[in-house]
Structures are given as structure tokens and as C-alpha cells.
Amino acid sequence: xxxxxxxxxxxxxxxxxxxxxxxxxxxxxxxxxxxxxxxxxxxxxxxxxxxxxxxxxxxxxxxxxxxxxxxxxxxxxxxxxxxxxxxxxxxxxxxxxxxxxxxxxxxxxxxxxxxxxxxxxxxxxxxxxxxxxxxxxxxxxxxxxxxxxxxxxxxxxxxxxxxxxxxxxxxxxxxxxxxxxxxxxxxxxxxxxxxxxxxxxxxxxxxxxxxxxxxxxxxxxxxxxxxxxxxxxxxxxxxxxxxxxxxxxxxxxxxxxxxxxxxxxxxxxxxxxxxxxxxxxxxxxxxxxxxxxxxxxxxxxxxxxxxxxxxxxxxxxxx
Length: 319
What we know:
alpha+beta; single chain; disordered C terminus; 9-stranded antiparallel beta sheet
């Protein structure tokens, strides 16, 4: 697989003329959005001031919600064509440069069933969305990933609906060359880091929504992650010292909370970003090195999971 350095060279050498044209479009679009935003805000403020004396606190909240909802819709409407052009002319060629056999569908996402089967999150989503779906094989290992947003629906006593995020970020599914009967789930160790060893260990052991707590021998791994499994022996068999080290390295490279599970002969990985990863910014130059590296490194991180965790190597015998 291409290195980050090779992909960065490709980004600038092969895509730079495209980026320059898109940069001109971005500047024009930014100006249009700012002007429309000022006009839209002025209209809302004038209308609100005319009827202000008739409004109570709840009505003002509804106006604020309406303002942000319409504002978000307008923003998405204005950037739609620019976003699509960026993905087709920049992200798609980058993916093909990594491997020509990878399929890229900017408007699709990982199937909801993969998210549910992963058992990474105990809540079942009521609504899912996402984009930038990539699927194919790297070193003869099947892999697929996308931006993914899972949400839970809530209703208050007055019947009003709100939504909360279960997960938002990069979701990856890959073959794991080992047959195993049970399931093993690895989560960020938030309890121990927040409450300390004593209370944290008690909370982990009494997490009734999960299977058996598995204590690993690697102290560095224990500080970062908590492991639950249907089978203590199988969990330690899957999580060899080498694999634990590789997961620690992968988590450090990502700079984001990492969730991992092993089920049905696959590895499921969720990196929590809380943002749309491959969306072009209207308010930052496409020609900046930092912006370019965000796209390149994120793609490399997602597709490179096969190489990073050596999923193409048969490090153990089949059960």
C-alpha cells in the first residue's frame, strides 16, 4: 500500500491543478454564503423584533430552532455541488491511487446491520446516516468503511422529539483471519481514567449491559481499554501481546477514541470523530498543507488498518 508520503506527493503533483480551480470556486462560494447569511439573519431579526411583544420564552426557542434549521439547510444547499465536485475530483482519485480495485460511493454508508452486529454500542439506533463509503480488498482482505452517524430518538412529556448521538465518526469492517465462537468487545477505558483504579474497576466489573470483564496482562493496554467477552480464554487468544501493541499504536495514530470488536470472523472498528471527515471546508483554503494532510492521513488510517494490524498474516492457527 502507498505510504502517506507517496499519497501526499500524489495529492500535490497530480491534483494541484484541480485544487487551484476548486479553490477559486471555494472563494466565490464563501462570499455568497456570507452575504446570504447576513441577509437571512437580518430578515429573521427584523421579523422577530416586530412580533417580540407577542412572544414568550418558549416561542423564542422555537424561532431560534427554526433559524438554525433553515440556516443549516441553506448552507447544505449552497455547498452541494462544490462538495460533490471535490469528492469526485480529489477524494475519488486519492482512493484509486491507494488501490484501483477499491469502490467509492460518496453518497452511501456502511449498512446499519454492520453497526448493530458489531455490539460496540448497546443502544440500537432509530436513525442512521453517513457517506463516503469505500469497499474492496487490500492484500486479499475484504474491507469497507464510511462516515457513519447513529442516533437515538427521545420524546419528552409534551411529545416533543429530540435526537441524541450514539456514535459519529469513521466505522470500519474488515476480515479477521481467525475463526472464533464467541464475541470480544474492546472499549475506551473512560471509567478508570475518570474515577481511578478502584472505582473504575468496580464500574467495569458491574457493567451489566456487557459480557464478562477480561483483565489483560498488558498494563498499558489496561490503561487505555476495557475488554468484555463471552469467553475469557478466547479473548486472550485473540488479543495476543502483538495485537494489543498494534491496537495501542493505531489508537495513538488516530488521536480519537477507538472501539473494537471481534464477531463472526470480522473485526469492527469505530473511531469517534464527531465530524464529517471528507467534507471540504468552505472557510479554509484547499491549498493549505494541513488541510491536505487531514484527507490523506484519514484515508491512509482507514484503509491501512489491514497493514497496520497485519490482518493479512496468519499469525495463529484456526480454532
